[in-house]
Amino acid sequence: EVKYEVSLAQLHLNATAIWTSIGNLQPASDSAQKAILILHRLRDKDPGNLKYQTDLARGLHNLAEAERRLQHRETALRTIQLAIQEKQRIVDRSPEDKYRHLLLSSRIVYADLMRDAKQTIPALEQYRDIYGTARELVEKNRDELPYQFTLATVSHSLGQMEKENKEWTAAKKHYHEALKLRKQLSARNPQQVKLILDISVTQYNLGNLHQVQAQLQPAIALYREAYATLLKVPEAQRQQAEVQKQLVNCHWAIAETSH
User: Fold this and answer.
1) When comparing pLDDT for 23 and 88, which is higher?
2) How far apart are CA 167 and CA 160, in angstroms?
3) For 38-91, how does the pLDDT look when each residue is reduced to its tens digit (9 = 90+)?
4) What letter would DSSP give residue 22?
5) For residue 148, what are the contacts with CB-CB under 8 A and spacing of at least 6?
6) Running DSSP on this structure, what letter comes out for residue 189?
7) Which of 33, 84, 86, 252 is most exposed by smallest CB count within 10 Å?
8) 193-216 residue pLDDT tens
9) Residue 237 carries which DSSP code?
10) Rounded to an integer, what is the distance from CA 161 to the centroid of its chain?
11) What are the C-alpha distances in Å from 25 to residues 96, 236, 258?
12) 109 near 121, Cβ under 8 Å?
């Protein structure tokens, strides 16, 4: 019976990932909740089982992600705090880098939710703290691509926060770091749409950083780069909502700064 429950939980977790990747957030949330119910039962029966703990933490994290994107802020906040508690328990027992990295992914979502709620200073403190750990993990584990991906994500978020805070020099530094990492990751996996989109968004935000400082020439150049990057998305996937939205953003930004 336990084997069956483990398989069922795994199915629900996989379904959550698939629904999320195609932007169907309500079914993603439903699948995550089903997985969590099963994994809670399994974890309570066998509290020392690391596999159940990490799967439960993953389920909670995925649910929080879906709820955030569905704009259910309160639910997302409560759920991500549970994910962080669960992951912290794992790290306390097994302080290996892979579990420390697992914890960072949920702390990023928590910081994102603070940013959404306009809690600028606490969010900035969170991002800076996460950034320190992410850098350390990358320096210790040069070949771990997921660690580089996380460092790129948090560098970009720091750039965003610093731009909003008018800390121009710091924002520029962190955007450039994110851009460099994202280009390296994309070179290894040129077909991955998410990475192409991430590069374009970073170039766009760097352009915006120049624009708000009235540096129009570098701004236009970066907006054009952001647009050109998007054209690397394979034809078949160019209709994805996020790609289309970014194409429109680039069009508008180029038109606006060209006048």
Assistant:
1) 88
2) 10
3) 999 999 999 889 999 999 999 999 999 999 999 999 999 999 999 999 999 999
4) T
5) 138, 181, 184, 185
6) S
7) 252
8) 999 999 999 999 999 999 999 999
9) G
10) 15
11) 32, 22, 38
12) no
Indicate the pTM of the whole model: 0.89
Q: Which long-range contacts (CB under 8 A, 24 or more apart) does 19-26 make?
A: 19/66, 20/62, 20/65, 20/66, 23/241, 23/242, 25/66, 25/69, 25/70, 26/66, 26/70
Distance, in Å, from the CA atom of 58 to the CA atom of 194, rounded to the nearest integer, reads 20
Average the pLDDT over 161-188 and give the result. 96
Enter the tokens of residue 148.
Answer: 């580089």
Q: Please answer whether residues 141 and 93 qualify as being in contact, where contact means their C-beta atoms are separated by less than 8 angstroms.
A: no
User: At how many degrees (to 10) do helices 2-21 and 50-69 cross?
Assistant: 30
Distance from C-alpha of 2 to C-alpha of 161, rounded to nearest angstrom? 46
Contact 245, 229 (CB under 8 A): no
Lowest mean pLDDT among 15-24, 29-38, 49-58, 132-141: 15-24
The predicted structure's pLDDT at residue 259:
78
Mean per-residue pLDDT of the chain: 94
SS3 content of the chain, % helix, strand, coil (to 5): 85, 0, 15
How many C-beta neighbours within 10 Å does residue 235 have? Answer: 7
